[in-house]
Specification:
It is elongated and about 100 Å long. The protein is about 60% helix and about 5% strand. The chain is an alpha/beta fold. The strands form 2 sheets. It has a 6-stranded parallel sheet, sandwiched between helices. Strands 2-3 form a two-stranded antiparallel sheet.
Amino acid sequence: MFQYVLFDLDGTLTDPKEGITKSVQFALRRQGIHEPDLDKLEPFIGPPLQDGFMEFYGMTEEEAAMACADYRKRFAPIGIFENKVYPGIGEMLGRLREAGMKLAVASSKPEPFVRQILDHFALAAYFDVVTGSLPDGTRSQKEEVVREALLRLQAAEEREKGAGAAGGQAGEAGADAAAAHTVQADENAAAERVPIGAQTCAMVGDRKFDIYGAKEFGLTAIGVSYGYAQKGELEAAGADFIAKSVRQLEKFLLDGRLPGKTKAGGEGQSADSGGETEGDRISPFLKTWNILFPFILYYLGYNLCYMVIVTIVQIFSQTGEEASGWLYGNSTALANLARACSMLTGAGILFPLFRKEKTKWRSRTGASFLTFGVLAATAALGVNILFTLCGITSISHQYTQVQETQYQIPLLQGLVLYGFVSPLAEEMLFRGLIYNRMKKYFPVAAARVISSILFGAYHGNVVQGAYGALLGALIAYSYEITGDFRIPVFVHGMANSIVFVLTYHREISASVGTPVNCAVFLIISVVSLLNVQRSGQWERN
């Protein structure tokens, strides 16, 4: 059990989205920038405000300072109260206090705003120390705020001990340190020595900045995934523990035990085995049903649309010999049209579920689409050539039939079907829904493997199944490291297109499919993958 716990405010104790995003929207409008979508302004929740304007909208330091001033014109009278406490926070803080913990708030928000919010929601009494940035914009970096909070905690404890030695006077629990704004030089020196360390103190927050602030002083870094972190952000930042709910957070703070590890860019500890999660509350049958339900919907939509088209074609064929002859002459094009329409119908049925997953469309990695294109093309070519050289492609009669069917499709139709329609529909199903739902019940690595195996099995033959599983794992990794749904669609489409073009022209396929080319393609794909991973290390600014 910890002796001291520091809490971030926004996204950890309270949900400030409406107030912050509307105030940012107001400030941007004053700068001539119109942003109607509040969801796109969520990244402003957590980091220092001025840094957000500079990073996300390319403002200069002076422009960002003006935007901050405009932001506060709306936030101070209105936005500060467009806020709500996460369910269970008050009860958790009460139990932590009952357990004898000293609690503090360490927020990058201006300290007067922090105090006003805590007072408004009747949370101030739980905290011994409340720390934020200064009104002039200084002390806004999380490391600076954490240092100040640690210093005030230590000063408060020293005064309490001194008061006890002088006559057993009561400590000032629930109130901030009287000398909060008059820190002495020797106390600053004590803060630099970090007298409160990882064995006794934890920092809780929802963004990477909170994790970095904790790590700076050797504190136990606890992330909460119910806040506003991007997928993988807390793991990549090196969180020691990630709680998926307030109940899990309380359980860990009281127990102080780290459950099983998860690796998603860092050595963070997962909360899967501690406290109650969505996966804990439902049975294995319902978990399976929730994961497979999108596939069932897609399957029914696809086949229903296909049967309707086939029925229409059959009716049309009976109108005369001319119609029958035309249909026979265009049977391949019609079959491709039926497949494309069926896929889009299935995807359309899934779209409402897909939107509820809150899939991001903004990449978190510096890797370009060119890098992902090279990765997709070379990996697809290398694996396909390897399968051919090893004789794997000849073990499945079904795969041979699929290849022969592909040669009958006009090149442009094949590129549209395999390069766009199929990737869009299949990624919405397998990554947008099945993979995202699996991550609610399983570790990320397990979800990646299982969803990739399902994606391979979906193709219906051994050769495409093995290839699909490998490609699916690569796509899932690309999706996880970027958080951008465009990336899996692009990687899938690029891999399909390059393989289709080469298999369409057999003479080119034969000349390219050499052992040397296979090795070159695989080496390039590995280098591209390393480049993507390096670019995906989350920036610390």
